[in-house]
Amino acid sequence: MKNIIYLFIILNVLACKNPVKNTRPQTTPQISFKKQGELQIIDNHGHVKANFDIEIAKDDYTRETGLMYRRTMKDNQAMLFIFDDVKPRYFYMKNTFIPLDIIYIGPDKKIVHIVRNAKVLDETSLPSIKPAKYTLEIKAGLADRYHLKEGDLVRWK
Fold first, then answer.
1. CA–CA dist 114, 150 (Å, integer)
2. How far is CA 125 from CA 2, 58, 102, 144, in A?
């Protein structure tokens, strides 16, 4: 019986001295942009202000994840969130590494509010101010570059 106890102690000591190391770094897999449509933003005179290739978030998982964990995004790429109802929306930048402009869009497809230059990794709530049915995320600074404003029309296919 003593031999079994000694063997048990020796095996435990050896196991503690030689821990298994995970030599692979822990990383989040790169998520690629998937073009699912095209979107235009149009002024009150019918002139196109901006064009974007869009990825669409229309189910719970894609709406909750959005652009989280992504490291890059081209200027002509955007994510369009489509909701089933119209109500005030609240977005935040948790796990989001790309600074964004967040554009809230009403049921008539007109911009109701723009949050400019949302800070990366910030969990502060960024409200729509007015009820919205859609939300568009673009790279920070593009809303100013294209002179986007409330009342501009958004259309996509």
1. 7
2. 64, 21, 12, 21
The one-letter amino acid at 72? T
Query: Chain-centre distance of CA 111, in angstroms?
Result: 19
Mean pLDDT of the 69-75 span: 94
* Cα–Cα distance, 53 to 51 (Å, whole number): 7
Q: Which two tokens stand for residue 27?
A: 């990383």
* pTM score, whole prediction: 0.81
For domain 29-156, which architecture applies? Answer: Sandwich (2.60)
Amino acid making up residue 66:
G
| Residue 41 and residue 50 in contact, taking contact as beta carbons nearer than 8 Å | yes
Sign of the C-alpha dihedral computed for residues 80, 83, 87 and 92 taken in this order: negative
21 falls in which pLDDT band (50, 70, 90)?
A: very low
Do 18 and 11 contact (CB within 8 A), yes or no?
A: no
